[in-house]
C-alpha cells in the first residue's frame, strides 16, 4: 500500500505503516484532506497482518506539525460559513481518538515544532519521541480557541496544576518538560532518528526505541516552577488566578500574568473549565466532547475569527477581544460556549467502544 495524498505520504515499509506529513513549507500544518487520508490508512492497517506498528514523522527539520491550517477557516467564516470548520474538527477529533485507542504500537517522532493539531497527531500515541529540537505547546488561547485535539486529557493528567499553567499560558516545552508533563515518553537525538526508523521498519518492535533513548540535553524548567505553579493555578477560576499573580509581583508571576493576558479571556476561562471537567472524568471521549462544544461555537459566537485575523491574516499580533479582561467576562458567556450541543454533539461511529 502506498499513497501520496496532497500533504501526506502514506505507505508500508517493511513491518511498519509509515505516515509522513509533507507540507514543510507550511510547517506541516494539517488540512482536512490529510486527516481523512490518515484515518483511512490507520483503519486499514489495524487489521493488516503485514503492519506490526505505525511510525509517523514529518518532512523537513523545522516542524513535526504546527497545528491546523486555519487561514481557510477564517475566509469561510468571513462569509458566515462555519460548517467546514465544524466538519474538520469533528473528523480530526475522531482521528485523535483512533490514535489514542489504536490496537497496534503507534510511534510518533515529535521532532521540531509540535503545536495544536500536531499534538493530537502524536501525543496520543503509545510511543512518543522528542528530540533536542522539539518545541511542544498548546497556544490556542492566543487565537481565541482552547487546547483541543484531546490535549485537555493530557493537561488534566499532568502533575499537580501543570496542565492549567500550560493551557492558559501556551508555554513552550522542550524535551525534558514535554516528558515531565506527559506529552512525550523519551528523548532521542535528532541525528539518530533515521537509524531508529530503519530499525523500526526492519523489526516491527517499538521496544527498540529504548536503545536510542537519552537524557534530554537541556534541563527542563517546569520542575523548578512546580511549587509556584501549583500555588497559583489551584485557584477555582481564571479571575482568581490572575488576581493572585498580579498581587504577587515576582518575576515568574509577572511573566505568567503577561502570557495569560495575551489570550482571549473567553478562551482562558474555557480552557480552565474544560481541564477541570476532564480531570473528573479522564477519558479521551469526554475530553473531545467538551472541546468540541467550544470549538463548534468558536467562529460564530467566540473569538476565533479575531484571533486568526491578528495572528495569521493581518499578523499585527494585536487582537481586539470583545471582552478585554478576564475579570470582566460574564459567566453566562462561558456557560453558553460549553453547553451541550444537542443533535450536533460529537459522536463516534463505534458507539464509544475503545477499539477502532
In summary, what is this structure?
The protein has helices at residues 32-45, 71-78, 83-100, 117-120, 151-157, 162-169, 175-181, 193-203, 209-212, 222-233, 238-248, 251-261, 265-280, 284-298, 304-313, 331-338; strands at 2-3, 8-13, 16-21, 53-58, 63-65, 106-110, 113-115, 127-130, 135-137, 186-187. It is an alpha/beta fold and 356 residues long.
Report on this structure.
- This protein is of the alpha/beta class and 356 residues long.
- It is 46% helix and 11% strand.
- It has 16 helices and 10 strands.
- Strand 3, helix 1 and strand 4 (53-58) form a beta-alpha-beta unit.
Q: How is this fold's topology laid out?
A:
Layout: E1 2-3, E2 8-13, E3 16-21, H1 32-45, E4 53-58, E5 63-65, H2 71-78, H3 83-100, E6 106-110, E7 113-115, H4 117-120, E8 127-130, E9 135-137, H5 151-157, H6 162-169, H7 175-181, E10 186-187, H8 193-203, H9 209-212, H10 222-233, H11 238-248, H12 251-261, H13 265-280, H14 284-298, H15 304-313, H16 331-338
Parallel strand pairs: 3-4, 4-6, 5-7, 6-8, 7-9, 8-10
Antiparallel strand pairs: 1-2, 2-3
